[in-house]
Design brief:
heterodimer; A: mainly alpha; 9 helices; B: alpha+beta; 2 domains; 5-stranded mixed beta sheet; two-stranded antiparallel sheet; elongated
C-alpha cells in the first residue's frame, strides 16, 4: 500500500472524501438555487438563463461529469462507511436512548441520502433527459410542476435535502478539522440557515407553479 | 434522611465470551437512595451469593470516578443518565421507586464481552501502544519552565488528558467509533512541545490501529461528547482529523 491509499483508505480518509464532495454539492446547491430564482422572473428570463448556461458547451459537460464523479465518490464512501458502522456493533442494545448529541439530521443521514438519490434520478428524468426539441425549458418545468403529485414530491424532497444538509454542512467542516471556538458556532448557524434557504428557496418553486397554473 | 426504593433490574447475563447471553430480571428491594449504582449491584450480588447463584460480574476499581474501570449502559445511556458522571459516581437518588433499570455491557465489535457486564478493552491499549507516547531519552531532569507553554495550550492539553479510557465514547456512539478516545490522546500530545517531533507518525499509527481494531467510523453525532464522564469535547476529534490530514498529505511519514 502506498501513502495515498494508506491515507484515504482509513476511516478519516473516507470521511474526508465525504466532506469534500459534500461541500462541493453545497456549492452546487447554492448556484442551482441562484439560477432557479430566475423562474420568478418569468419564461423569458428563465429561458435566457438556461440558454446562457448551455452556451458554455464543453465546460458544462465537464462540470456534469465532474458532478457525476463526485456523486459516485460520495455514495460509495457513504455505503462503505455505513456497512462498516453496522459491523462495528454486532450485538445491538436492548434500550437505545440519545444523550443529546444526535439531531434529526445526523441520525437520518443514510436514509435522507437514499431518498435524495431517488429524487435526483427523478429530477434528471423530468428535466434533463427529456425531449426539448419543440418546447422551451420553462414550458417543461411549468407543465411538470403543475402536476400536484409531482409538485408535492418535489417539496418533500427539498425538506429531505434540507435535513441532510443541516447535519452535512457543519459535519464537513468538523471532518476537515475546522473546529475553532470562534468560528464553529458561526459554521453551525450558517449550516442551519443554508438548509432553511434550500427548503424554502427550492421548496417554494413547485408551490408557486401550483398557484399560477 | 435516607429513603429506600424498590427497583426491577434487567441485567445482561453471559457466562463467557463465546456463549449466548440474555437479559435476566432481578428484584432490587429496599435500596437506599444514598447508595451508588455499584453499591446497589453489590447488594444484589450478596443476595445472589447467599442463594447459591452466580453473582453479576462487573468492572470497578477506585469507585471515585477517576480510574476508568467501571461502566455499563443503563437504560440506553453509558454510565447512566447523569452528565459528566462515571457509573460509580451515579447515585440511586436519581432513580424513582418502581423504576425498571436495564443494565447492558458496552456493545462494540472491538470490546468482547468477557462475562456479564465485563468487556475486554485491550483494543484501547493496542491503540495507545501504536503511538500514544513520547520518546524521551533519560538523563537529568530538565529545568522547570525551560520550555515555555502558553497557559491556554496547557489547559486544552489537560482537558484531553482527562480521558480515563473507560470506553463510554465507543459505547454511546451509534457507530461504535473510538474517535473521542483516540483523539484525546492524539490531541493532548500534539498540543505540547514534547509530543510534536512524533506528531505525524503518531497520528497515522494510532488512526490505522483504531481502524484495525474494528471500531466504527465517526459520523459527527456528538453522542460521545454528551456521554463522556470527563466531558471531553469533540473539538479534539477535529484536531485529530487535522493532525491526520497533515501527516497523511504533507509529512514525509508513509
Amino acid at each position: 500500500m502506498n501513502w495515498f491509499t494508506n491515507t484515504f483508505g482509513t476511516s478519516i480518509g473516507k470521511k474526508l472524501m465525504m466532506s469534500c464532495t459534500g461541500l462541493a454539492f453545497c456549492g452546487f446547491l447554492a448556484v442551482h438555487l441562484a439560477g432557479n430564482l430566475t423562474l420568478y422572473g418569468g419564461a423569458d428570463l428563465f429561458n435566457a438563463y438556461a440558454e446562457h448556461l448551455h452556451s458554455l458547451g464543453p465546460l458544462l459537460t465537464v462540470a456534469e461529469f465532474g458532478m457525476l464523479a463526485f456523486a459516485c465518490i460520495h455514495i460509495l464512501s457513504a455505503l462503505v462507511l455505513y456497512l462498516e458502522n453496522l459491523k462495528a456493533r454486532p450485538t445491538r442494545y436492548a434500550v437505545n436512548k440519545n444523550a443529546g448529541g444526535r439531531t434529526i439530521g445526523s441520525s437520518t443521514m443514510p436514509y435522507t441520502g437514499l431518498i435524495l438519490i431517488g429524487f435526483i434520478t427523478l429530477h434528471l428524468i423530468n428535466f434533463h433527459f427529456v425531449d426539448k426539441t419543440d418546447r422551451t425549458i420553462f414550458e417543461i418545468v411549468s407543465a411538470a410542476l403543475s402536476n400536484p403529485g409531482l409538485a408535492l414530491a418535489y417539496v418533500a424532497a427539498m425538506i429531505v435535502a434540507a435535513i441532510h444538509v443541516s447535519h452535512g454542512f457543519w459535519s464537513a467542516f468538523q471532518t476537515l478539522g475546522a473546529n475553532h471556538p470562534k468560528y464553529m458556532p458561526i459554521i453551525k448557524k450558517a449550516g442551519l440557515i443554508f438548509s432553511l434557504l434550500i427548503a424554502v428557496g427550492f421548496g417554494f418553486i413547485p408551490v408557486y407553479f401550483s398557484i399560477i397554473s | 434522611m435516607s429513603k429506600t426504593i424498590n427497583l426491577t433490574l434487567k441485567v445482561w447475563r453471559q457466562k463467557g465470551p463465546d456463549v449466548k447471553g440474555k437479559l435476566e430480571t432481578y428484584q432490587a428491594d429496599g435500596i437506599s437512595t444514598d447508595m451508588s449504582f455499584l453499591e446497589m449491584i453489590d447488594v444484589i450480588n450478596e443476595k445472589l451469593t447467599r442463594d447459591g447463584k452466580d453473582p453479576i460480574a462487573f468492572d470497578h476499581d477506585c469507585r471515585e470516578g477517576i480510574c476508568g474501570m467501571c461502566g455499563c449502559v443503563v437504560n440506553g445511556r453509558a454510565h447512566g443518565p447523569e452528565k459528566g458522571t462515571t457509573l460509580c459516581q451515579l447515585h440511586m437518588r436519581h432513580f424513582s421507586n418502581g423504576d425498571t433499570v436495564v443494565i447492558e455491557p458496552w456493545r462494540s465489535r472491538a470490546f468482547k464481552v468477557i462475562k456479564d457486564l465485563v468487556v475486554d478493552r485491550s483494543a484501547f491499549d493496542k491503540v495507545i501502544q501504536a503511538g500514544g507516547y513520547v520518546s524521551v531519552n533519560t538523563g537529568g531532569a530538565p529545568d522547570a519552565n525551560a520550555i515555555p507553554i502558553p497557559q491556554v495550550i496547557a489547559e486544552t492539553a489537560m482537558d484531553a488528558a482527562a480521558c480515563i479510557g473507560c470506553g463510554a465514547c465507543v459505547a454511546s456512539c451509534p457507530n461504535a467509533s473510538a474517535m473521542l478516545f483516540v483523539s484525546a490522546k492524539v490531541s493532548q500530545l500534539s498540543l505540547l512541545p514534547q509530543g510534536k517531533p512524533e506528531a505525524a507518525k503518531r497520528a497515522l499509527a494510532m488512526v490505522r490501529k483504531m481502524d484495525e481494531m474494528g471500531f466504527g467510523n465517526c459520523t459527527n453525532e456528538a453522542e460521545c461528547e454528551a456521554e463522556c464522564p470527563k466531558e471531553i469535547s469533540i473539538s479534539h476529534i477535529a484536531r485529530m482529523n487535522r493532525e491526520f490530514l497533515k501527516a497523511g498529505l504533507f509529512s514525509s511519514e508513509k
